[in-house]
Amino acid sequence: NHILQPNPRRPGFLYIYTYKLLYDGICNNRTKDLKWLKIDNSVLSPDNTKKKIWQDMSNILCKIGMTTKRDVQSRLNEWESSCLHKVINLTPQNTDILIESSTNLHKSGSNHNLSKLMGKLSLSPKKQSQSRIPSCKDLKLYTYQNGGFYVDGKGSMTLQDIENSIHQLLWKKYGKGVIHCSGCKKTGTAYKKHIEWFVIPIKDLPLVLQL
After folding, report:
1. Taken in order 201, 206, 209, 211, is the CA torsion positive or negative?
2. Burial of 129 (0-12, 13-18, 19+ CB in 10 A)
3. Residue 196: which of 149, 151, 161, 163 has the closest Cα?
4. Which of 38-47, 77-86, 131-140, 156-165 reaches the highest mean pLDDT?
5. Where do the H-state alpha helices sit in 140-198?
């Protein structure tokens, strides 16, 4: 009898990316370019399906994908062609730039409050130790190459299994939302909905890359 052999495990990459306009908007503190980006919480709360324009500078929308192509950028180019929005790979370098921009933005926004400034004055010594926001430079990302995390296909889990397990972990931690994409082809009068995006605090991105 013929014995069916399991499909060979294909090597590939896991990667994380976001919309280029969203990335640039947060880095430059410009929300007026994001009127096309709408999100709701309908998966988390069925009673709250009102679409809201993105105005959040402390969080970012991320998507985690997989590809068996030779490099991640080739797959991102395909996303741009289908979604008609520029995307940017959240490499460790791009992530650190985003974290630094976001941190500086919050610092500058809080320094204008005179009462806060006066409240920081004290005649008694205080501990100077402050919790530093993690940086991707602090991480040992052993499998990172060619724009993503390389999976050789020799482990106990397939590339898709790994991607699915990461999705489940992130949904459990951060919940789900729905993106109403103005770039993708409409179904009737409604925009296409994307449900595999995550709303993640920018300061948590190094932890996500570590995961």
Report:
1. negative
2. exposed
3. 163
4. 156-165
5. 159-174
pTM of the model: 0.76
Dig out the tokens for 108 from the structure.
Answer: 């500058």
The crossing angle, in degrees rounded to 10, of helices 92-110 and 20-28 is 40
Pick from 133, 160, 179: nearest CA to 9:
160
Structure tokens at 197: 């995006």
List the one residue out of 99, 68, 75, 105 whose CA is nearest residue 89.
Answer: 75
Distance CA 81, CA 33 (A): 20
Amino acid identity, residue 185? K
The widest CA-to-CA distance across the chain, in whole angstroms, is 86
Q: How many helices (H) and strands (E) does the chain have?
A: 6, 10
Instruction: Decide the pairing of beta strands 148-151 and 178-181.
Output: unpaired
135 token code pair: 């940086």
Distance from C-alpha of 142 to C-alpha of 199, rounded to nearest angstrom:
26
pLDDT in tens, 78-131: 988 877 789 999 999 999 999 998 887 766 654 444 444 444 444 444 444 455
Phi, psi of 190 (to 5 degrees): -95, 145
Name the E strands within 127-196: 144-145, 148-151, 178-181, 192-194
CA gap 211, 198 in Å, rounded: 14
